[in-house]
Design brief:
Belongs to the prolyl-tRNA editing family. YbaK/EbsC subfamily. It is an enzyme of class 4 (lyase). This is Cys-tRNA(Pro)/Cys-tRNA(Cys) deacylase. Its EC number is 4.2.-.-. The protein starts with 10 loop residues before the first helix and ends with a strand. The protein has one domain: YbaK/aminoacyl-tRNA synthetase-associated domain (YbaK protein), CATH 3.90.960. A hairpin with a 6-residue loop joins β2 and β3. Helices cover about 30% and strands about 25% of the residues. The chain is of the alpha/beta class.
């Protein structure tokens, strides 16, 4: 009988374990599969708008000042609105080529869990996700996600809600 290969936990899953936060491991590859991945999630009973992407931004004041916004995959950001909501002159997308240096993660693997714990960046969530008891975020590896209670994640990362689009 063949042994079942055990999937090694990501560092971010270990962080959740250390904080006694329950979660489900999921495989969700938005980067390669796009809307097919969303359809697959919906077929599994997961509301597409409860699956979040993590966007790293910087303020206009200093290139070293970063923040994170998490919002449903299919939504867009309004950078002017976010700047206004935060009382900043401007916010900009962080340079994708420098993401690993900024956050420790490659594009597609950024997660509010590790970024909050390791970097201490402010974490904001699209206010439209308030209606979901459970949400999914990256587990710190491209194609891997964790699904957990929204309230547990907000508490862990000291998250705040933000209007990110009109």
């Amino acid at each position: 009988m063949a042994k079942k290969k055990k999937i090694k936990k990501t560092n971010d899953e270990r962080i959740l374990d250390q904080h006694h936060i329950e979660y489900e491991e999921t495989v969700f590859n938005w980067l390669e599969e796009g809307y097919d991945a969303l359809a697959e999630a919906q077929a599994a009973g997961i509301e597409a708008k409860s699956i979040l992407k993590t966007i790293v931004l910087r303020t206009s004041e200093k290139e070293t000042d970063h923040l994170v916004v998490c919002l449903p995959l299919e939504y867009e950001l309004d950078l002017k609105l976010i700047a206004h909501e935060l009382g900043e002159k401007q916010v900009h997308l962080a340079d994708n080529k420098k993401l690993i240096k900024i956050t420790g993660y490659v594009h597609g693997a950024n997660t509010p869990i590790g970024i909050s714990v390791r970097k201490g960046f402010p974490i904001y969530f699209d206010e439209r996700i308030k209606k979901f008891e459970k949400i999914s975020v990256s587990a710190g590896q491209v194609g891997r996600s964790v699904r957990l209670k929204q309230s547990d994640l907000i508490k862990l990362v000291n998250g705040k809600y933000l209007k990110v689009q009109e």
